[in-house]
Amino acid sequence: MIFTTLVSVLAIPALVSAQIYGPPPSSGTTTSAAPASAPSAPPDTQGQMNINVAFNGNFVFNPANITAPVSDIPHSVTQSSFQEPCTYLTANSSAGTGAGFDSGLTNAVQFTINVTDDQRIIWFHCKQILHCGLGMVGSINAPVNGSNTFQAFQAAALQIGSNEVTQTSGGPVTGGVHGIATATPAATGTSGSSSSSSSSSDSSSSSAITNAASMATILLAVAVGFFLV
Hints:
The protein is elongated. The strands form three sheets. Strands 6, 9, 10, 11, 12 and 13 form a six-stranded antiparallel β-sheet that branches. β12 (215-222) and β13 form a beta hairpin. By secondary structure, the protein is mostly beta strands. The protein has helices spanning 150-160, 196-205, and strands at 2-7, 10-18, 49-53, 61-62, 78-80, 109-115, 122-125, 137-140, 179-180, 186-187, 210-212, 215-222, 227-228. The protein starts with a strand and ends with a strand.
């Protein structure tokens, strides 16, 4: 039995382990035997919180109340298309394009893609359950006017809403279409004063998409907060 805890419309799984009740005692004379041991929910892990049902044979949940921190909820940066905003972009042999990039469901990492064509639009979404249908989508180089704007893309995702198809997470996928991920997500790291100068330069460079030799680098921070930095 799987419990899904929603915190600010973000999902975090809570695995529930049921306790086993032994059979009723027999009225006849029987040989005593040790009672069956009740299973116990495994320890909590990042992104998953576990609850015992009918703990120790009592009509209780244990723990009866949990706090599901938003920071434990993984997100993704998953390439999609304007026509299907909440669906992973698979390879298209007719168009001669490969599959899209995908950070996989994760958090507290940095995912980098290189934009290879600044005249083409890159669409992406978060594939965590229900997130795309709630409007958690993004675009790169979308026009301000016309039919293929970011607003139109987001409206299409919102129209899908709770009918969003759940996507499995097979881990990160490098590559992409018009935006190439050359490496899987890397954990973000901070250091002391030695990183102050680099942090300053990173902050200034992240305020805009930098084009150099027809290639731009965009850092997509996959964390509890979904940032373009």
